[in-house]
Amino acid sequence: MPRTTKRAGTSPRYGMKAAEKVEKAMHERKRGTLRSGRSGKKVTSRKQAIAIGLSQARRAGGKVPPPPRRRKTR
Questions:
Q1: How far, in Å, CA of 50 to CA of 60, rounded?
Q2: Would you list the domain boundaries of the chain?
Q3: Rounded distance, CA 32 to CA 72, Å?
Q4: pTM
Q5: What does the longest C-alpha to C-alpha distance in the chain come to?
Q6: Cα angle vertex 55, ends 14, 35, to 5°?
């Protein structure tokens, strides 16, 4: 079971479902079975594994903040 730390007077940013999905994605990455979207290439990056886990949690309806918005360049 994932550990979450409680900040004083605030609710946690990520829910349990998000923590479970990210944990599962990290294990798959370590085993070498985690694959990315359409291309199906093997994921080796820790950051990409976390992003995939959070994306799956969002689709499953877990408590996850929205992804950061990209800024338009002029």
A1: 15
A2: 16-59
A3: 35
A4: 0.72
A5: 46
A6: 130
Q: Which two tokens stand for residue 55?
A: 């994306």
CA distances from 58 to 8, 25, 32, 74 (A): 25, 14, 23, 31
Q: Residue 51: what pLDDT?
A: 92
Output the six-digit token pair for 66.
């929205």
Read off the tokens for 58. Answer: 């969002």
First to last CA, the chain: 46
- One-letter amino acid of 54: L
* Inter-residue contact 48 to 36 (CB < 8 Å): yes
Residues 14-26 pLDDT 10s: 899 999 999 999 9
Query: 22: closest CA among 49, 3, 44?
Result: 49
Q: How far is CA 10 from CA 21, 61, 62, in A?
A: 23, 21, 18
